[in-house]
């Protein structure tokens, strides 16, 4: 099989001053994931490599760039899933720089699919990960935005850089035809402590099935969860559920369901079981990129 990779850096209103950085970040993620695939790595290796780059890039709301919650803390969520239906997820972690790597460990080294909070962090420590101090994940940009919110009469979107930014993800297919998907986020700004959105939930923010394809979503989590958008998109790719749609048509069909049933805003990327990319969003912008025979295509 021809390997394939698609990544996203969130569906939101991207400020003009952030466009160059968003484009560069998506390209670096593609380069990292593609390097893994070209070296003979698995689809899961590529997904992890790409998302680690996005988590380490402060322009995105994942890992080091994450929004603060109501109490001024960063709480991170992530998931990985393979076409075999194996999956691992973490939620509300505060001392993990790269939650996507912890989610992979949950999948591969535990009997569980999701771990949260301190328990997830302890599991990571026991599996060789290094914990960071919670304040190491806090950017001065986000701390200032949070202070404006708590010192005024409440949260205001205008206080935040990319207030609706959030969630990064990747979907890959390797030379053996294996497919994997992953999603990682810092969540919404000024969210309640303990709030978990769609991103780490199987079928909502992420899904992968060898019989259909793989999906990573981004956007308003409370709406995405209501229609299980990742699973909905995957079902549009599946033979036997109805007429199997193309990758682009499946992405748009899933977004149409979201709009019709919830009036929510979101975006998604996907690969079908042949590695063809699809994407759709109803926000002003979405940062995304994918591989082609000619190289990388990046849109912001």
Describe the 3D structure.
This protein has 300 residues and is an alpha+beta fold. The protein has one domain (4-291): (Glycosyl)asparaginase (Glutamine Phosphoribosylpyrophosphate, subunit 1, domain 1, 4-Layer Sandwich). The chain has helices spanning 19-38, 43-55, 99-109, 117-126, 140-151, 221-227, 229-237, 247-262; strands spanning 4-12, 76-82, 87-93, 114-116, 168-173, 179-185, 206-209, 213-219, 266-272, 277-281, 285-292, 295-299. The strands form two sheets. It has an eight-stranded mixed β-sheet with strand order 4-3-2-6-5-1-11-12. The chain has a four-stranded antiparallel β-sheet with strand order 7-8-9-10, with helices on one face. A hairpin with a 4-residue loop joins strand 2 (76-82) and strand 3. The longest helix has 20 residues, at 19-38. It is globular and about 55 Å long. The model has no long low-confidence stretch (mean pLDDT 94).
- Strand-residue fraction? 25-35%
**What profile does the largest beta sheet have?**
8 strands, mixed
Reported by name, the CATH topology is Glutamine Phosphoribosylpyrophosphate, subunit 1, domain 1
User: From the coordinates shown, what is the CATH architecture?
Assistant: 4-Layer Sandwich
Count of strand segments: 12
State the strand order across the main sheet.
4-3-2-6-5-1-11-12
Query: Alpha-carbon distance between the termini?
Result: 29 Å
What shape does the CA trace take? globular
Q: Could you tell me the radius of gyration in angstroms? A: 17 Å
Number of helices: 8
CATH class: Alpha Beta
Low-confidence stretches: none
Class derived from helix and strand content: alpha+beta
Number of domains: 1
Proportion in helices: 25-40%
Q: What order do the helices and strands follow?
A: EHHEEHEHHEEEEHHHEEEE
Global mean pLDDT:
94
């Amino acid at each position: 099989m021809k390997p394939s990779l698609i990544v996203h850096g969130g569906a939101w209103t991207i400020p003009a001053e952030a466009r160059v950085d968003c484009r560069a970040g998506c390209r670096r993620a593609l380069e990292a994931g593609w390097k893994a695939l070209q070296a003979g790595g698995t689809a899961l290796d590529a997904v992890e490599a790409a998302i680690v780059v996005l988590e380490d890039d402060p322009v995105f709301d994942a890992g080091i760039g994450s929004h603060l919650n109501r109490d001024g803390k960063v709480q991170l969520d992530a998931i990985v899933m393979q076409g075999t239906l194996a999956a691992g997820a973490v939620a509300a972690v505060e001392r993990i720089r790269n939650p996507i790597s912890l989610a992979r460990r949950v999948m591969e080294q535990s009997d569980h699919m999701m771990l949260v909070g301190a328990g997830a962090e302890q599991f990571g420590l026991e599996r060789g990960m290094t914990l960071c101090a919670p304040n190491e994940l806090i950017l001065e940009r986000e701390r200032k935005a949070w202070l404006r919110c708590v010192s005024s009469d409440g949260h205001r979107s205008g206080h935040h850089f990319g207030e609706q930014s959030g969630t990064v993800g990747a979907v890959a297919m390797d030379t053996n035809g294996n497919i994997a998907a992953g999603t990682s986020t810092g969540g919404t700004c000024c969210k309640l402590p303990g709030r978990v959105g769609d991103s780490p939930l199987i079928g909502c923010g992420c899904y992968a099935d060898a019989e259909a394809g793989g999906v990573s979503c981004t956007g308003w989590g409370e709406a995405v969860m209501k229609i299980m958008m990742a699973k909905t998109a995957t079902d549009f790719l599946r033979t036997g559920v109805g007429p199997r749609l193309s990758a682009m048509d499946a992405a748009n069909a899933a977004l149409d369901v979201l709009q019709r049933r919830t009036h929510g805003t979101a975006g998604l990327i996907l690969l079908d079981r042949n590695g063809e990319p699809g994407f759709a969003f109803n926000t002003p912008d979405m940062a995304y990129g994918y591989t082609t025979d000619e190289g990388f295509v990046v849109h912001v």
